[in-house]
Design goal:
The protein is built from five helices and no strands. It is mostly helical and about 120 residues long. The protein binds heme C.
């Protein structure tokens, strides 16, 4: 017997330590797993947007999942297409609702028709 806890020998201390560790580990494992943002995919189980959405609705719904509605600065049609494709890749990778290739086309057309005049 030595130290500050004369009533607890080494073996007892080990048992107590293991018991505490086990309880804490159990609590940790019981924590609900949370995904960033709680996207629509988790809420609705849907992976894609309904094909019936208008281009405008699609643009508003799809493009505000991660950031505010982007400003439609002048870009070439090809630049916009590549950007929307990149955003669609982010959506799929990050577990957000993503776009069919037809919907990518609808958004690009919408954006090109609504760019800010330069
Ligand atoms: C899954 C999340 C996510 C969604 C949904 C999303 N974006 Fe983004 N967006 C990002 C991230 C992350 C960045 C910054 C990194 C980058 O530019 O690649 C960004 C940056 C941007 C930028 C600025 C960068 C640049 O090159 O001009 C624009 C514009 C943009 N997004 C437009 C859109 C449009 C349009 C949509 C809808 C089709 C959209 N975003 C949907 C994640 C997203």
């Amino acid at each position: 017997m030595s130290g500050k806890f004369p009533s607890m020998d080494n073996r007892m201390a080990l048992v107590v330590t293991l018991a505490v560790a086990t309880v804490l580990f159990g609590l940790f494992m019981a924590l609900p797993i949370r995904q960033k943002g709680g996207s629509d995919v988790q809420k609705s189980g849907l992976r894609e947007f309904p094909a019936t959405l208008s281009s405008e609705d699609l643009f508003h719904k799809a493009c505000t999942q991660c950031h505010s509605l982007p400003t439609l600065n002048q870009k070439s049609p090809e630049q916009w297409r590549l950007l929307v494709l990149k955003m669609n890749r982010y959506m799929a990778q990050m577990g957000y609702r993503s776009l069919s290739s037809a919907q990518v086309g609808h958004i690009v057309d919408y954006v090109l028709g609504h760019q800010k005049p330069s």
